Amino acid sequence: MLSDAIVTLSCPDQPGIVATVAAALAQRGGDIRVSQQFGDDQTGQFFMRVHVQVPAALTLADLRAHLEPVADAFGMTWAVTDSAERPAVLLMASREGHCLNDLLYRWSTGWLPVEITAIVSNHETLRPLVERYGVPYHHVPVTPESREQAETRLLELVDSNAVDTVILARYMQIVSERVCSALAGRLINIHHSFLPGFSGAGPYRQAHERGVKLIGATAHYVTVDLDEGPIIEQDTVRVEHSLGPQELAAVGRDVECQVLARAVRWHAERRVFVNGPRTVIFR
Q1: What beta strand segments (E) does 71-177 contain?
Q2: Residue ranges of domains in the chain
Q3: Which residue, 11, 36, 112, 199, could crosslink 106 as a Cys pair with Cβ 3.0–4.6 Å?
């Protein structure tokens, strides 16, 4: 039974969008609880997220059918979802388990509004951790010779588990253009630096060599351009000269966990809109 729905949309900006959407929802007995919108003067795009209460007898299909003429008239990219829906996610990690463990813990407490359906790793290292949470663990080794086969297996798991989003929780393999295309807008990575600084491998070593006073982490959508996808969330922490590369990494792990958790939650709650190389986020 539907009681609350989330309406998300983007389209070329023009007068009357908010009024028309609000009127259409009111026609079906919708009571808007939260409405957030943003018009980007640079791109000419308009973005909107509406949390609306609807009569219990109204189905998602009914609401979508009612809004479809409005969406067509404004040329919208849009979606209507049940606010209680928890999207299925697949987590990927290599040997370091701090981000993976943090997401699993937050999910187990109910803070993270997703369903974790599977874990994929190119190593066996994290299996004991994952099995404590009762989540299926799939060891998919990656070598230069087996990379294409491994990615085929990944995409099979995405399909068989009806996965909405894949999270790279310190998965230390570069994904191919094939995977980026198949999961466009549904593949999130945590990079252990405050991008665009120190992209690529070894960011804590790079940060130490440069003597930075702040280190950070960046959660972003993955594209074919390494570490250059639209940024969802970032944060930093102050450090000092006495910390070596390993100590910087230890400090950075907490920031990585927090940044990735916020990004996954906002994505799951349909708060993130891709706006070219940037994002719009309604917190």
Answers
A1: 77-82, 88-93, 115-121, 137-139, 165-168
A2: 4-82, 88-281
A3: 112
Q: Which CATH class is domain 88-281?
A: alpha beta
Q: Tell me: the pLDDT tens digits for 46-83?
A: 999 999 999 989 999 999 999 999 999 999 999 999 99
Give the residue ranges of DSSP H helices in 89-146. Answer: 98-109, 127-131
Please state whether beta strands 137-139 and 115-121 pair in parallel, antiparallel, or not at all (unpaired): parallel
Phi-psi map region of 227: left, alpha, beta (phi>0 left; psi -120 to 50 alpha): left
Instruction: Please list the active-site residues.
Output: 227
* Of 10-19, 51-60, 116-125, 211-220, the least confident: 211-220
* CATH architecture assigned to 4-82: 2-Layer Sandwich (3.30)
Tens of pLDDT along 116-166?
Answer: 999 999 999 999 999 999 999 999 999 989 999 999 999 999 999 999 999
